[in-house]
Design brief:
The chain has about 140 residues and is mainly alpha-helical. It contains 5 helices and 2 strands, in the order H-E-E-H-H-H-H.
Length: about 140
């Protein structure tokens, strides 16, 4: 496929509502030229580590039936840059907090800045609160 991704990947994108196609008289999937650009945008967003929900919002914000333009890309990339900046700040904060853990071995969960900042776990009550929360998310 000209997009540089597997056909199954394009089918996945279509199932998620990121691209649209149609069936030919011979029952083959067909895609407009705009899908090539949309796939390129999706691949860049994935490389940036953006979640599929954010990628979908970006694709949904593009006018349908036409190839995304440089102006569209400028808008999307500005939004994504803000998200990347937010993540960079968060990662730097986590990195700096990690330094306080070196040598701790998590022997002091009450004061651990990563696992229990500000001893917030004590507000949840006794017992394995993190384990209980992890199980409900499964």
């Amino acid at each position: 496929m000209r997009s540089g991704v597997a056909v199954s990947t394009v089918h996945f994108y279509e199932a998620k509502g990121l691209v649209e196609g149609w069936r030919s008289a011979g029952n083959q999937r067909r895609y407009g030229r705009d899908v090539l650009r949309r796939v390129a945008i999706i691949k860049v967003a994935q490389r940036l580590g953006l979640p599929l929900s954010m990628i979908k919002r970006a694709i949904d914000s593009l006018p349908g039936g036409r190839t995304p333009t440089a102006k569209d890309w400028k808008r999307l990339s500005a939004e994504w840059r803000n998200e990347l900046d937010r993540r960079i700040v968060l990662l730097q904060k986590l990195r700096d907090q990690l330094e306080s853990c070196i040598g701790c071995g998590c022997l002091s969960l009450k004061v651990c800045q990563l696992r229990n900042p500000g001893d917030s776990m004590s507000d949840r009550g006794p017992g394995p609160q993190l384990l209980a929360a992890d199980l409900t998310e499964m």
